[in-house]
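User: Hi! I'm working on a homework problem where we have to compare a predicted structure to a textbook description. Could you give me the structure for the chain below?
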Amino acid sequence: MLRVQDVDLTPNPQALKFILNERLLNRESRHFKSKENAENDPLAKGIFAIDGVESVFYMDKFITVEKNPATDWGKIQKPFIEFIQSFDTSLIPAEQEIEKPNEQEESALLEQINSFLDQRVRPALAGDGGGLEVLGIDGYTLMIRYQGACGSCPSAISGTLNAIENLLRREIHPAIEVIPG
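Assistant: Happy to help. Predicted C-alpha cells:
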C-alpha cells in the first residue's frame, strides 16, 4: 500500500514535498500546472480533485503539491493522504522509452551541461521538492524550465537561476547564459 512517510517544507511557502514509501517513476518526472494538464494521469488528476491544489509534480518517491495561497494546508493534507493510501499505483501511465540521441545530434557542450546538472544541481532541487528540465541550447544560451516547487518559487525565478548560471560559467564555459523557457 502506498503511504506518505514524511512531509518536507520547500523554499516555496505554497508547496509541500510528500515523501512516499514506494517509487512512482524510475527515470521520468511529471509536472502538471492545471487540472486540464492532468486529465490523462490518474495520480495527478486525483490530487487536483482536492480543493486548493494549484500544481502537482512527481518523480522517484515523492510528490510535490503546490496550493492556492488562500487555502490552508490543513484542508489539503488529510484528503491527500487518504487519496494516496487508496491509490492503485498500477494506474500511473507507463514511462516513455528514452531514445538516446547519437553523439552527432547532441552537442558536447549540452552533454557536459546535463552531466553537471545531474551531479550538482538536480539533486539539490529534488531535495526541495522540485526539478529542472533543459529545453535546449542555442549557442551558449541554455533554456531551462523549473518543475515542482521550483516552478513558482520566487527564489528559483531569480536567485537560483543566477546561481546555476554562475556555476555553469565557472565549471563549463564563461559565456553560458541561462534563461527560463
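For your comparison, note the following. The CA atoms of residues 70 and 104 lie 50 Å apart. The radius of gyration is 17 Å. Good luck with the assignment!
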